[in-house]
Design goal:
The chain has helices at about 1-35, 50-55, 60-70, 75-110, 115-125, 130-145, 150-170, 175-195, 195-200, 205-215, 220-235, 240-250, 255-270, 275-290, 290-305, 310-325. It is mostly helical. Mean pLDDT is about 80; it is low at about 1-75 and about 90-95. It starts with a helix and ends with a helix.
């Protein structure tokens, strides 16, 4: 269904370019078919882009001076310029159709859980300047790295690739909420390969990008959840990691389980039942707060959540283990 719609868009773009080329050829041929006398006629003022071009040239006085100086501005060259503008404009429209087509296909594959196919589609556009394509490529690279079938070497490679794509997306559009979100996620992932000191050192930067993402898109439940994870991680940080944090920051970042719980609930309010991991962490946080009744409620929801991805299956497994331990 999605492919049919996007395919028709691509067809429109191609047909438009062909029509423009034929029109340009016909326009350029007219002066020469009508003979040399036709070239001597003065240029007529046109509306739209032609009139703007005329004003940029300074009007008829400039044209007369140019002719007196021996420089002939022919009707043919002017029309060639206009034809070029027409074709260039349609090419830009065609390019926008292509971006929309790729995004439509990517979102369909993402929704279908086709991680490898999604990556193969998007990696062809890794040199794009479009932030919407680039953050999706960062996400696809990261998702592929997370698969259990991905080797350790490939996982590392994809993790760093994902970070570079997210970084480029942010450079291209600082106002893109998803670019900030995936920059924060990918920066955290890179820390897994560079050691706990680097990971903790990047913690404040990561949170700042998540907060900026929420400012740009306050209803994004996933980013709200991620700040909850950030808070939970610092609330649950072992003593030796706190010692590392104290050496890196004059005032080390801290948080509490109550703060983490607030964000997990805010995420659920923004989009109920949107993510198995948010249900799991609601249960885990209530366990940390010694509220077994609510922990059982949320862990049961996590266990019963339909498994569409490998992550969902891992969540189900962890939720079941925690339920059995209570």
């Amino acid at each position: 269904m999605a492919g049919g719609w996007t395919g028709s868009c691509a067809g429109v773009g191609r047909c438009s370019l062909k029509v423009a080329a034929v029109m340009a050829a016909r326009v350029l041929a007219r002066p020469f078919r009508r003979g040399a006398a036709y070239l001597g006629r003065p240029l007529r003022r046109e509306t739209g882009s032609s009139s703007r071009c005329w004003r940029e040239l300074g009007g008829s006085s400039v044209l007369r001076k140019s002719l007196q100086g021996g420089i002939a501005l022919s009707t043919g060259s002017f029309l060639a310029y206009e034809a070029h503008r027409l074709i260039s404009g349609l090419a830009e429209v065609h390019a926008s159709f292509k971006v929309e087509e790729v995004i439509e296909q990517a979102d369909y594959l993402y929704g279908s859980g086709e991680t490898e196919k999604l990556y193969q589609v998007l990696v062809q556009h890794k040199n794009s300047d479009d932030a919407e394509l680039l953050w999706r490529l960062a996400r696809a690279s990261r998702d592929l790295a997370q698969l259990s079938s991905t080797s350790a070497e490939e996982k590392r490679k994809l993790t760093y690739e994902a970070f570079e794509y997210a970084k480029k997306a942010l450079e291209k559009n600082e106002s893109n909420s998803a670019a900030h979100k995936w920059y924060g996620i990918c920066l955290s992932d890179v820390g897994d390969f560079e050691g706990i000191k680097t990971k903790i050192g990047n913690a404040i930067i990561i949170k700042e990008h998540f907060q900026r993402a929420i400012e740009l898109n306050p209803k994004d439940a996933t980013t709200i959840h991620l700040i909850g994870i950030w808070c939970y991680s610092f609330a649950d940080m072992p003593w030796y990691q706190r010692k590392i944090a104290a050496t890196l920051f004059a005032t080390p970042p801290t948080s509490t389980f109550q703060e983490a719980l607030r964000y997990f609930h805010l995420a659920e309010e923004a989009d109920p039942n949107f993510y198995s991991k948010n249900l799991l962490f609601l249960g885990k946080t209530y366990l940390k707060l010694n509220n077994k009744k609510l922990a059982l409620l949320w862990l049961t929801k996590a266990k019963d959540y339909p498994a569409h991805t490998e992550e969902d299956k891992q969540v189900q497994k962890e939720a079941l283990e925690l339920l059995n331990s209570i």
